[in-house]
Amino acid sequence: MADVRTYTLIYVVLLVLGTAKFVFFEIGISEQLAIGGTVVLAVIKSLLIAGYYQHLREEPRAISYMMIVAVFMVFLLTVAAGYSIQ
C-alpha cells in the first residue's frame, strides 16, 4: 500500500492535469486540439485514479484485465448508442 507522500503527489498531479484541461481552452489553440488534449489528460487521470486510489496496482493481473474488458465494453456500448441515434 502506498504511503501518504505518494497519495499527496498523485493528488497534486491530478490537480495540475485538471488545471491543464482548463488552460487548453483558454490559451487560444484550436478547439479540436484542445478537445484532443483534454481526452488524453482524462485518460491519464483515469489511469492514475484506478491505479493508486482504487489500488489496482496491488491487485492480481486478472482483476486488471477484467477492468480493461469492462471499459472496452462500455466504449462499445457508447459507440453503438451514438450510431443508433443518427
From TrEMBL:
Q: Give a yes or no for keyword Membrane in this entry.
A: yes
Location of this chain's protein in the cell: Cell membrane
- A Gene Ontology term for the protein's cellular component: plasma membrane
Q: Which top-level group of life is the source organism from? A: Archaea
Recite the UniProt keywords alphabetically.
Cell membrane, Membrane, Transmembrane, Transmembrane helix
Q: Coiled-coil annotation: which residues?
A: none
Provide the primary localization: membrane
Q: Which residues cross the membrane?
A: 7-27, 33-53, 65-85
Q: Does the keyword Transmembrane apply?
A: yes
Q: Which InterPro entries match?
A: Cyt_c_oxidase_su4_prok (IPR005171)
Membrane topology term reads: Multi-pass membrane protein
Protein name (record): Cytochrome C oxidase subunit IV
Which organism's genome codes for this protein? Natronorubrum bangense JCM 10635
